[in-house]
Design a protein that fits this description.
Layout (H helix, E strand, L loop, with lengths): L4 H14 L7 E5 L3 H16 L5 E5 L5 H20 L25 E4 L6 H11 L4 E3 L4 H7 L8 H17 L6 E6 L10 H12 L7 E5 L8 H24 L8 H17 L6 H13 L11 E6 L1 H4 L8 H7 L3 E3 L3 H18 L3 H29 L10 H5 L11 H15 L5 E7 L3 H8 L1 H8 L3 E6 L11 H5 L2 H12 L1
Parallel strand pairs: 1-2, 3-4, 3-5, 5-6, 7-8, 7-9, 9-10
């Protein structure tokens, strides 16, 4: 399950150490290193399973050399005592690191899915319920996120938030943990996500309240593990809800009757819920009814507000609890928000992944996904004609060579992950909206990809002409979005950069 080359070697070395008499390990780790935040836990469990002493030294810029020396002296004394006792370890106990998560979804279990997208995820729950999979949406609050930090040792905060949100949902709904499953995405990216199922299951084992009997279900973001029908319906859910969010962000800052746009969104989501539950049969007619709700809203866009585009971590970007309702904050302070629907992000990055898989001879994956995506793109064009009446912009096309887009950042096709995807987002958004004033990157605390993207913010501005502000939500509360305010009040820099880019 370990996703990293050096971490794999460290654990292999640890296993060799415990099998060698008189040999004792000192684990050197950097403060809040993403891979090590997972790795140290399993290193300790390997040592504890063999009853062998060890030393973990976490290096930062604040500790004194005296503190390190004291710990090293104590460790050497412990190692010497253990060796002199001629300790017989016996059979090691690895029960503490035995994963129990599943890749098969049972219709006899209640599935809890994280609400990482306020509008799309409830529709996904409707789809799964209609297909016979009992599903509820996770109940996440600022309190559950803050409480989840008790399980955090430097891992990505969304992982801990999933645990606490899962526990709160089971508790609030009176569910039996032994027949509940937590949905966690399957991913092979160069990121911590691959460790999520395993590590969450380990936390559940010690959480209490019967959660040791609960299960983690490892599913696909496109739901291809369930059925082609679910995949198609899920794509529609992402598309319709994402475009409705974009319409609302386009109209709400300029509406003449405050609250009318939000009411149209609420009614639209009811109509979509009825559609995906099977209570409505005609998808086209439903979409036309939704569009009419927005066509009736009077608004005036003659005086434009600063245009702010959101991008970043998938769990934070469209999660109003995690991002402290950043869209409302921007609009209340005089800005207009540009959002990206998840289905567009899929189309934006698919060519890059298909090229990479082709180089890696992963032809089966290409052959299984490429025809589906091609059909879904055709379907999107059919329904987009309704949304175009209100959005007043054509369906976006993402056909530029990804290698050429990434080359100025010295990133190759061999790289993969969210940082690379973020560069594609900023490239296409800046060209789709040439009057853009600001990019806001939304990250959770301890997100490796977020840190890497933030380090490239200067280069992103050089390439797009748009400044980049990175916000990190660490679960402790506070007014994180206040950092946006100066950019909204003094937005000439972003507008100037945009004009310079157009001249170039």
């Amino acid at each position: 399950e370990v996703n990293w080359n050096f971490a794999d070697k460290i654990l292999r070395a640890a296993e060799k150490v415990v099998q060698t008499d008189g040999l004792y390990p000192v684990f050197l780790t950097s403060f809040k290193c993403g891979p090590d935040s997972f790795l140290v836990e399993y290193f300790r469990k390997i040592m504890d399973a063999h009853n062998k002493p060890y030393l973990v030294l976490e290096l930062d810029e604040h500790d004194s050399s005296v503190g390190y020396e004291t710990r090293i002296e104590a460790a050497v004394r412990s190692f010497r005592n253990h060796r002199d006792e001629s300790f017989e370890p016996g059979k090691p106990d690895y029960s503490g690191i035995n994963p129990r998560y599943s890749k098969v979804l049972s219709k006899r279990r209640t599935l809890v899915i994280p609400k990482w997208d306020d509008t799309a995820v409830p529709l996904i729950a409707d789809i799964l319920n209609a297909q016979g999979y009992p599903t509820v949406v996770m109940e996440e609050t600022e309190q559950t996120i803050r409480k989840s930090l008790q399980w955090n040792n430097g891992q990505c905060i969304p992982m801990n938030a999933l645990v606490e949100g899962f526990a709160a949902t089971i508790r609030n709904r009176g569910l039996d943990p032994s027949v509940c499953s937590l949905w966690v995405p399957e991913a092979n990216l160069s990121c911590n996500i691959r460790m999520f199922p395993h590590h969450i299951q380990e936390i559940l084992k010690v959480y209490g309240e019967g959660l040791e009997k609960a299960e983690v279900y490892q599913g696909m973001l496109a739901y291809t593990d369930l059925s082609p029908m679910v995949t198609v319906l899920a794509y529609q859910a992402y598309m319709f809800s994402g475009l409705i969010r974009r319409i609302s962000c386009r109209i709400r800052p300029y509406e003449k009757n405050p609250g009318q746009t939000d009411e149209a969104v609420r009614k639209s989501m009811v109509l979509l819920s009825e559609l995906f539950l099977g209570l409505r049969k005609n998808t086209g007619q439903t979409i036309q009814e939704i569009i009419r709700l927005f066509e009736w809203i009077p608004y005036d866009r003659s005086s434009r507000k600063p245009l702010v585009a959101l991008f970043g971590d998938i769990y934070v970007r469209d999660n109003s609890v995690m991002n402290q309702d950043v869209i409302s904050y921007i609009e209340q302070n005089g800005g207009e928000v540009v959002t990206m629907a998840y289905h567009e992000f899929t189309r934006m990055t698919c060519d890059m992944y298909f090229k990479r898989w082709g180089r890696e001879w992963r032809l089966r994956k290409i052959m299984s996904l490429k025809p589906i995506l091609s059909a879904l793109e055709t379907m999107e064009k059919w329904y987009y004609r309704y949304f175009e009446k209100v959005l007043e912009e054509p369906v976006a096309m993402y056909k530029d060579d990804p290698e050429e887009i990434l080359a100025p950042y010295s990133i190759r096709m061999d790289h993969e992950g969210e940082s690379q995807d973020n560069l594609l987002k900023t490239y296409y958004i800046s060209r789709q909206y040439p009057d853009l004033s600001l990019f806001v990157q939304l990250n959770p605390g301890f997100c490796c990809a977020g840190n890497v993207t933030e380090a490239m913010s200067g280069k992103i501005r050089d390439m797009t002409g748009v400044p980049v502000l990175s916000l990190t939500y660490d679960g402790t509360g506070g007014l994180k979005n206040d950092a946006i305010l100066p950019y909204l009040k003094y937005s000439e820099g972003g507008q100037k950069g945009s004009k310079e880019r157009k001249l170039v």
